[in-house]
Every structure is written in C-alpha cells, then in structure tokens.
Amino acid sequence: MTTVAPEQPRTAVHPLKAWVREMADLCQPAAIHWCDGSEAEYQSLCELMVEHGTFTRLNPEKRPGCYLARSHPSDVARVEERTFICSRTREAAGPTNNWADPAEMKRTMHERFRGAMRGRTMYVLPFAMGPLDSPICKIGIQITDSPYVVVNMRIMTRLGTVVLDRINAGAAFIPCVHSVGAPLAPGQADVPWPCEPDPQKKYIVHFPDDPSIWSYGSGYGGNALLGKKCLALRIASSVAKREGWLAEHMLILCLTSPAGKKHYVAAAFPSACGKTNLAMMQPAIPGWRVTTLGDDIAWIRLGQDGRLWAMNPETGFFGVAPGTSAQSNPNALAACAKNTIFTNVVLTPDGDVWWEDMGVPAPASGIDWEGNPWTPASGKKGAHPNSRFTAPAAQCPVIDPAWENPDGVPLCAILFGGRRPATIPLANEAFSWEHGVFMGSACGSETTAAALGQAGVLRRDPFAMLPFCGYNMADYFAHWLSFAQRTDRAKLPKVYFVNWFRRGANGKFLWPGYGDNARVLKWICERIDGTAAAQTTAIGNLPTPESLDLAGLDLPAENLRQLLDVDVAGWKKEIANVAESYAKFGDRLPAALTRQLDALRERLG
Ligand code: OXD
Ligand code: MN
Predict the structure, then answer these.
(1) pTM above 0.85, yes or no
(2) Separation of CA 189 from chain center
(3) Hey, which of 83, 271, 273, 343 would you mutate to test ligand 1's pocket, going by the most ligand atoms within 8 Å of its Cβ?
(4) Which CATH number covers residue 341?
C-alpha cells in the first residue's frame, strides 16, 4: 500500500499534536497523513483505493468523478446494539441507550486500539460540523485508518486546513478515534474492505462528558463517518443540552409561495419514512417551490430575536439508494449524477450503477453488491437495501441559497411524522408548544404485517431520536419543553404531526404522497400566515376538507374523510401505547407530558 510520509504541518500545536502522538503510539500505524482537504488529496486517495480494489471507477461518460465501493457483507449498516453512551452514570444515559461505565470502556477501547492500525496509514482529519462562523459550529478531529472514510468525510463535512487553522488559533476540538480493526502483519495482503467481521467485537462508543468518540471494527456509514450520527447527533445532543440548543434528526426545507414568501420548516421522521424525498421534493401544486437546506440533521438554537434558527451541520447527503427514482426524488438523482461515492449498489456492464426501484429497467446482467454476477431473474436483490450514495449537497438542483448561512434560517414550523397505517390523520396542528413536544415524544413508525389489513408492529421513536439521543430521553423532553420558558411562545415555530402513510380498508395508501405532500405543506404555511382554516378536534387542529388545496388531484371523497377523521377507538389504543412507552422513564418524565396525555384522554371522552 502506498503511504504518505509521517509528517506534521508546521501549524499543528499542542494539545492536538500531543493527542495525535498519543494515538499514534497506541495504534502504531505505518504512517501518518494529515489531511488538508484539498481536491488533489481527494483524487489521490480515490486513485489509491482504485489500485487497491476498494473502489471501482464508474464510466466517466455516465457518472463523471464517481466511484463504487462494496463493503464486507457483515458491514452494511449502523449497529445499534453495539452503540454505547458512556456517561458518568447509567441514569444520565437513560433507559433507551446502552450504557457502559466510562472508565471500564476506556480500558476496553485502549485494548482494542493497541496496535489496531499496524501496517496501515493513520489519517488525521480536521473537520467542522456547521459553517465555521456559526455560533454553534463544532470542530472534530477524526483519526482513522480508512481512506474510504476520509473521502466520504470530505463530502459530508467541512474538512481540512481551514479547520486546523481554527484549532491552532485556540478553538477546541472533539477527539474522534476510528479504526476498521484489521491490523496487517508484515507482508500480509490487504482486502478491499477491511473490518472486524464479528459483530460482538464492534464498538461505537460515546463519552458525552469528555466529549469524545471511539469507533472500532466497522468502516460503514454512521459507524465510521464520525461527524454524522456520533458527533452531530449523539454527542451534539448532549452538548446542546448543556449549552441550551438542540441537535435534531431533522431535514430542513424552505417552501416558497407563488408570491415569494419563504417558510422554513424542519421535520423529524424515523428512518425509512422518506426524509430525503421530502427535503428536496418537487411540489405537485403550481407556483410553489421547495428548496432544501439539509436531509438528515438540524442544529437549532434560539436567536437573539427569540425565534428558533436551524442550520444543517453537514455538507453532503448520505442517502439510501434503493427507492430513489425520478418519481420519488428527481433532485437526489440529479445530485448523485457526478462526484459521488456509491456503496453496495449494482454495477452495470456499461460502468454505471443501478438499484431496486430506480425507475429505470434493470440491466440484463451486472455485478451485485457482494461482487457476484447478477441478473434480475436471480430472485436476489442486486443492491443492498441499505446501499448508499454520498453526494455533495451543493450538487442538489434545489439547494437553498441560505443553506450555508452561519446563522441558519428562522423556523416557522416543526413537523413530526412516521409510517402510520391507521389512526394518525394526514396533518394535525398542536394546540401549544407543550402539545407539540407531546407529539414529538409520541413519534413512531409502524410496519405493516405481511398479511394485508393486519395491524403492524409499532416502534416508538420519540422525535426520531431513539438511536441518536446522547442522554436520558426524559431530560431531552424537558429540554424541549424549556424553550417555552426561554422565549416568547408566540415566536416559537408551530408544531404539526403529519402522516403520508395512512391506508384504507383495502390496504392501499389513502394519500398519493411525494410531490402531493406539498399540499399539506401549503396548508401548514397558510395556517402560519393565518389564511387557512382548521377544525378544532380532541386531538388537535385538523385541516377542514376545503382548506386543503386538492386542485388537479383525483382524491376520492371517502379517502379525504378518512385522512381527516378522528378515530376515537384508535386514539384510545394510541394513548395506552404512549403511556406504556413513558413508563420506562419513571419519575424523570416531565409532568407536562403526563398532563398532555391526561388532557387528550379527557378530550376524547
Ligand atoms: C441514516 C439513519 O442513515 O437515520 O440517516 O439511519
Ligand atoms: Mn438519519
């Protein structure tokens, strides 16, 4: 393997220099490479991975500047059961997280990392989450022995010398240590995707009190790109609690009316509910425009004007490929037309990529995500269901002009949602901030059982943060509630619960979804502007049938009736289920949420 001389830039100073030295002593790499974040460095690392078999260069006429990687079959997704929050006490991590004693876990990490990078290059990545001049920008240094991680982090974060300069000027950094956990003995041949294949030996570990991150054994996605789920959600949520802001699993979009009025909206949905699709959708209603500021993470703070301001700490999209098509998300397809890294999709004979539900015919043959010859007739999926594209956000045709604004954008609405085949209406406006926090805490997603019409399995995923909240979720609810005391409530965004996934008795979706979801966004914006009607019900303010713009949509009246119905029996079950999900928090659950639950029960009669 080609390595870069172990050399440090002149600008590196203590404590960074001392920490990198300490990590090198522990991990014993063959070389150290300080990443400058340049295009030349990116290209040479891609080249190195092509030589090494990790990357396949795609046909430049079809996908200029694009590469395909195939992971080890054991290393294809986040590993929640191996993800740990090592706060001082178990209570601080709360009942929804895996807790481990921090001192013990540090010892385990030191054992794991001793010699872990032998025979490999240790890359040092100075990166920033958020525009450098944002008041809540956070700087990290990731140490990694994976060039795949380096190039993905260059797309997903602000990376390189400019960040190092800030550290040298005195900025603090969050240490993030990563190894694929596959040291090489002298003369040992490497493999295209080194990792620790035994799931029990993978560790994704967070020390929120340091704060620091240690990730061992996986080279994939949220396990390895430490700026994303580890820093920007788990660590940032805990730092944000201390500093008085919010780190959220939310997209940010701007809906512009035909008259040019902008409405900035943040929305939290559990995984697999179409967050990326909504973030950059093409509205089905003439004159309305959606532009995107982010598809996965929002950092939200109170502005001096008393409003909530949101910014996207990332610079790229790490999107799920299967299901991304000209119908579901033409703008994501355009974003990954060039300069994109694909992982675990099908390689076509003409050097392009393909995945299930791409909306174009499958190639007659190809190479599947495991590197084997594949045909559509094989009955096997060609792309892994969690295969990904890593694409620069700036390439999205509908990227919002304010997406890199250090101050962020002022939110007028916050949406929660999930895949809910029954009970939950198309749109529901909270009566108050507390009611809105209650809605967020009751977020969940339901899978339909194989047999049509049968109720599915509901997983509660409060605020879509179940896998990502870095501290006790009861305290997280309290933090959300506290904003009503910290500002004029009239300046807080209005809160809505939306559901595109309601099904009728025949099992079919009642609502068309995709671009037609803009009709619901339009109603929300008109509510905020005071021009749309609503009906006050026991569960919240629902659209009146006439207040939704359904022009040009052939929606049966019965569908609309069901979409806007208050299913009292269903809501009683919902209440029981939410109460059950609250029980695990014991006395720590804020009383305001119990009051919301009781009030809802009472209103339903
Ligand atoms: C993601 C996730 O990858 O939420 O964004 O799992
Ligand atoms: Mn996500």
Answers:
(1) yes
(2) 35
(3) 271
(4) 2.170.8.10
